[in-house]
Amino acid sequence: MDRWVGKIAIVSGVSSGIGELLARELVSAGVDVLGLARRENKLQELSKSLKNTKGAFHYLKCDVRNEQDIVDAFAYVEKNFGRLDILINNAAVLIDNSFENGKTEDYRSLLETNVLAPALFIREALKLIRKHKNDAYIVNINSICGLNATVVDLPMGLYPASKFAMTAMNETLKKEIKDNNDKIRVTAIHPGVTGTELFFSSELHRNIYNITPCLKPKNVVDCIMFALSAPPHVQIDELVVTGVATKK
Question: Which family does it belong to (predicted)?
Fold first, then answer.
């Protein structure tokens, strides 16, 4: 991670779970992080806990369903740091429901958060990286549901479709970068069931977590840090990480 010391990262969804721990790991490694989330109190708590670390933690209140909030985040980075080196698309929502009982507003929230927001983050990141012609890294936190829609035995409704969309987005992004000769690497992380606030948002998911081999947020963060630590000539295209049962 030495090559990223003093570099600038944007991480979405840092108020809990994978995003929070990732922000801590990056700052501890010497990366300056702009953390984004809706809950300003959580951002303030995280900021206070990251004083006197190797890197610096900055934050902005950001609703990823609000395009202007996303645009403002990149404007903040350009104004205060002059460049962007790392983008981590982490923010997501999981709504468990059958198609029969699905609500239109839930569908809209899911698609805007899991599909449109990452696309907007990527768009703004490419503009800024290409403007300054620097090496950079984009990590998209996806899901095993973006590879197999029925791998998790839960009523997932539109969630796997949103993650399949991100899988396609990741592939078309890599092709565009290659065609444009950008010095940008792209990695997709596909975690299995992970014990985060996102998964504990429903009683059904909590029950599944208790009987299914699951990951901890650190397991996913370790994958991200591994990808970022690869030499400049190495791109980790995809990492699939799942929990397995262990003897008690």
Answer: Belongs to the short-chain dehydrogenases/reductases (SDR) family.
Whole-prediction pTM value?
A: 0.92
CA distance 181 to 6: 25
Which residue(s) pair with 188 in the sheet? 140, 238
Q: CA neighbours within 13 Å on the CB side: how many for 100?
A: 1
| Active site amino acids | 159
- For residue 115, give the nearest of 70, 154, 65 by alpha carbon: 65
Between 198 and 222, whose confidence is greater?
222
User: Phi/psi at 222 (nearest 5 deg)?
Assistant: -60, -35
Q: For the chain, give the mean pLDDT.
A: 92
Can you give the three-state secondary structure of 76-88, one letter per residue? HHHHHHCCCCEEE
Q: Tokens 């696309």: give the residue.
A: 119
